[in-house]
Amino acid sequence: MNIRFFIKASIIAGFIILSSYVQASDLQQRQSDLKSLQSQISKQESALQDTNKQREQLISLLKKDEKAIATAARKVNETKVALAETDKSLHTLKQRQDKLDALKQTQQDTLSNQLASAYLAGNHDYSKMLLNQQSPATIERLLAYYQYLNNARMKSINELQGTMSELDEIQDKQVKQKNKLNKLVLNQQQHSKQLSLEQSQRQSTLTQLQRTVNSRGAKLEQLQIEEASLKRIVEQALLATNNSPSMEGLKSKNKLKWPTKGRIRSGFGSKRSGQVKWKGVTLAAPEGQQVSSIAAGKIIYADWLRGFGMVLVVDHGKGYMSLYGHAQTLLKNAGDTVNKGETIALVGRSGGQTEAGLYFEVRHKGQAVDPARYCKR
């Protein structure tokens, strides 16, 4: 047991040293990149004007920041899932170990009783039994009885050896799972630090961007550009659905679940700015909360989109599609098929949002329809 402990400790210590080196190197590079970006923003600040060129540069920076956040957040989520699975595996191994320990004790007691019975029966010389002219039938019964006891003892011994062998395997698996758990915890800490760093950089870029769109005219212009970007994506998605297999569509009106829990912050058809209206709903929800597909379908778009951040579009067939925006990260890729209620993303603030939430649309043949017609409260 001391040797095992020493090996385990050596493995963990070695991993910690390696992870620390990789993490420090990554942080130094990221800090250098941050300083470079902040220097660029500071230079722009001294002579900042509300120009399309400056705005486009900042939006490009925001895109990079939010995609980096999505990558870090996805790793955090994957590690979180792996931690839960490893913990579950350890729990299962512990339950099996407890059962084997109890079985081992029972088998040892049984074997002990069998050995005691054999000792009490004493040793018999079969040649003396023949010379004493004991009944052949009696001798046959005694031989059969002794053979039975021998077979029972051998069976008990084999069963005990099998149990002890399985116990050794369980203990080896536990050591490996605990080492894996330690590694995952270190990864989780590293990914969380990376996520925090990316979020800090994103906030700097967003603050600078907001200064370039502080007028009403500039905001309206941006909304119109964003609407045009979304329109192109929808048109491309419609073309893609022509080649996809037939699916069920959204038949169940007012019976589907909303993609995430939260209050409606902006409703379908409500005014955004000027003549621009909301073509979907925004659900206020905590960052990192799971987002689920409202129905089965195929992912036809999964990427960053101006004004909407990390966006995922699902084709449900028969001209129906659902769109999920402002995600922190996307957990599925274009081309993946998803089931109803399957987790596809995490709630976020991408797309330049200051508050966490999910932007959600339902469209039929390219036209936006009120999601409340299909999703129940």
From TrEMBL:
Listed name of the protein: Peptidase M23B
UniProt keyword annotations, A-Z = Coiled coil, Signal
The residues forming a coiled coil are 27-68
Q: Which SUPFAM superfamilies match?
A: Duplicated hybrid motif (SSF51261)
Task: Give a GO molecular function annotation for the protein.
Answer: metalloendopeptidase activity
Organism of origin: Shewanella sediminis (strain HAW-EB3)
Q: Which residues form the signal peptide?
A: 1-24
Any idea where the M23ase beta-sheet core domain is?
A: 277-371
